Amino acid sequence: SHQSTLTFFPAVLQYLYTDEIDPEGTNCLQLLKAANMLGIERLKAMCVLILSKTLTDENAATVLQTADENN
Predict the structure, then answer these.
(1) Taking the model in full, what pTM does it have?
(2) How many CA atoms, within 13 angstroms, populate the side-chain half-sphere of residue 69?
(3) What percent of the chain is modeled with pLDDT above 70?
(4) In this structure, how many other beta carbons lie within 10 angstroms of the beta carbon of residue 21?
(5) Residue 38 · residue 70 · CB < 8 Å
(6) The dihedral of CA 63, 18, 36, 33: what is its sign?
(7) Which residues 6+ apart lie within 8 Å of 1 measured at CB?
């Protein structure tokens, strides 16, 4: 939704200015959704990389669902 994009706009803006994201302080699943909605391919790739490194049994289903929803 547009509301979730607005919630993560500061993280998107930080990325646009620095070409970096804070993997500790950022919900990468939500940021991936925002990046997909905004068409920011490099940010999407960065989120996917972080998510792949932090994949666990506990979050695998949620990550898969989000990936399916966001190509």
Answers:
(1) 0.77
(2) 14
(3) 87
(4) 19
(5) no
(6) positive
(7) none
Closest CA to 11 of 41, 45, 37, 35: 35
Q: Answer yes or no: is pLDDT of 4 > 80.
A: no
For residues 30 and 53, what is the distance between their CA atoms, to the nearest angstrom?
Answer: 16
45-70 pLDDT tens trace: 998 888 888 888 888 888 788 777 76
Nearest to 20 by CA among 38, 42, 1: 42
- Find the helix or strand (DSSP H, E) in which 6 lies: helix 2-7
CA dihedral 26, 65, 4, 32 (to 10 degrees): 50
